[in-house]
Design goal:
Distance between the termini: 30 Å
CATH topology: Nucleotidyltransferase, domain 5
Largest sheet: 6 strands, mixed
Order of helices and strands: EEHHEHEHEHHEH
Strand content: 15-25%
CATH class: Alpha Beta
Helix content: 40-55%
CATH superfamily: Ribonuclease H-like superfamily/Ribonuclease H
Number of strands: 6
């Protein structure tokens, strides 16, 4: 199993200033390497079709709507699944001590939980440009909870990895569906809704046992 992880939004709670109202973490899950290679090849074929250079990085926040739609349409029949956790900060009040790294840590537990009990070997890929605290939270959790299980956990450069780029587009699409003030709220998620295995909006009670 190969899992690509990305987040959209930030762990800050000053939503009246610059913090995002939602924090979303999503997994892009492939059951085997063949499926991931096929998806990567289709992304590259789409990149050539629209005449973008190989160095162009697909990112939800900077890619045009038309291009995102085309990318999602090009991979929607590929064999992958999506699991997401969504934090609506207006509904969850947390003490200062369990925000930021601890908050991301708790969300990461939730979104990975189901697959960590599997007997299957897992490869986990995380964007290496993510904030250091977020990377360390993920690495620490995996070390503590996998123990004797074999796992291949690596940070990758999103500029050179089309599947991390796809994870960015997917998690951005999920978060956008919760921002009703935008004109394109559901356009992207509707394309890949058949790929969504779980989309869990969490509550404070879900977080507290994990973040203690």
């Amino acid at each position: 199993m190969i899992i690509f992880i990305d987040e959209s939004g930030d762990p800050g709670f000053k939503t009246e200033k610059d913090s995002s109202p939602f924090l979303v973490i999503s997994l892009l899950i492939f059951d085997n390497e063949e499926d991931s290679v096929e998806t990567s090849q289709l992304i590259e074929a789409y990149r050539k079709k629209i005449k973008y250079t190989s160095s162009y990085e697909f990112k939800f926040r900077k890619t045009r709507k038309k291009i995102i739609v085309g990318l999602l349409e090009s991979v929607k029949h590929c064999k992958f699944r999506i699991r997401s956790v969504i934090l609506d900060k207006s509904q969850v009040k947390l003490s200062k001590e369990i925000r930021n790294k601890a908050l991301y840590y708790g969300l990461l537990i939730m979104v990975l939980e189901k697959y960590l009990d599997s007997q299957q070997d897992i490869k986990v890929r995380l964007d290496g440009i993510a904030e250091r605290e977020l990377r360390n939270a993920g690495r620490t959790y995996l070390r503590n909870h996998l123990k004797e299980r074999r796992i291949d956990f690596k940070l990758v450069d999103s500029k050179n990895d089309s599947l991390i780029q796809l994870a960015d587009i997917l998690v951005g699409s999920i978060r956008r569906s919760y921002i009703f003030s935008k004109h394109d709220t559901n356009i992207y998620k509707n394309i890949i809704k058949g790929k969504i295995e779980e989309e869990r909006v969490i509550k404070k009670d879900d977080l507290e046992p994990i973040l203690k």
